Amino acid sequence: MVHSRRVRMGFVSVVLTVAVGVAYAPVVSAQQPVPPDVVQRLAPDCPAWYTAGARQLTLQQPTRIEMVCRVTNPLAEAVDYAGAMAFTLGEQARMAEWAALRGQMSAAGNQMRWSDFVLNPGESASATVVIEVTPVTADAGRPVVLFTGARMAARTASGGFAEVALRPITTETVAGLLSGGFVLSSGTGSTARMTVPTSPRTGSGVGQEGPARPELLIPMLVGLLALVLCAAVVSARFLIGNAGETGPRHRRRLGGHE
């Protein structure tokens, strides 16, 4: 009889299995449940960063990314990672280099496998892989998938079993890439290029390039003519007013001499 329950925590999906009497392959019988928080701590931590090639992911341009996966035993007993830790590569990713300080590491087809090592309490182990990605047209405007998923199985010395399934890992999580790890949708260079959309300029023509617009000249000419007429009217009134004030005095002066 097998009792199972699934717990989702953060970025991992944790499967806890307790077998009684009947083995649940590849789990042996008489196993002890492993607390969910401990299972999550047994899962690998895999930070990644840019190392070479196009820092801005660009169509048909290769980019190299280094990833180091580390596991640590937080328990007071040994943990056996004899079962393979399998990572499935994305379509545009390939393993260029790989190495493990403990255990065996191999690449076959689209899978990377790391297994055959035991960690005593407090011990850690790490494996390094260099992944090369070359985006294609279908990747434009989105991140590239490094691993479609990963699964890890570990067994404690007391018989507990923990299985962890990781979600897909994409270039969004890679440090040092431009544009947040998204693929440039146009251009062929290895540096980021930004196209700023522009809109047609409108207005009265001040500072505007190109020839003058006829529909704007007519209102300007009408306004200028109105100003000239207003100036002429004001000048005429001023002259008439002055003539009215000086005429009578001139006549009185003439009369005084008679």
Short description:
This protein is an alpha+beta fold. The protein has helices at 36-42, 214-256, and strands at 2-9, 12-19, 48-53, 63-72, 79-80, 85-89, 93-100, 104-108, 111-115, 118-119, 124-133, 145-156, 161-166, 169-170, 174-175. A hairpin with a 2-residue loop joins strand 8 (104-108) and strand 9 (111-115).
Could you characterize what this model shows?
With 258 residues, the chain is an alpha+beta fold. Helices cover 19% and strands 35% of the residues. It is built from two helices and 15 strands. It has helices at 36-42, 214-256; strands at residues 2-9, 12-19, 48-53, 63-72, 79-80, 85-89, 93-100, 104-108, 111-115, 118-119, 124-133, 145-156, 161-166, 169-170, 174-175. Strands 1, 2, 5, 6, 8, 9, 10, 12, 13 and 14 form a ten-stranded antiparallel beta sheet that branches. Strands 7-11-4-3-15 form a five-stranded mixed beta sheet, with no helix packed on it. A hairpin with a 2-residue loop joins strand 8 and strand 9 (111-115). The longest helix is centred in the C-terminal third of the chain and has 43 residues, at 214-256. The radius of gyration is 41 Å and the shape is elongated. The termini are far apart. Residues 1-30, 188-211 and 248-258 have low confidence and may be disordered.
Compute the gyration radius: what is it? Answer: 41 Å
Summarize model confidence as the mean pLDDT: 74
Helix amount: 10-25%
Low-confidence stretches: 1-30, 188-211, 248-258
| Class derived from helix and strand content | alpha+beta
Q: Report the strand count.
A: 15
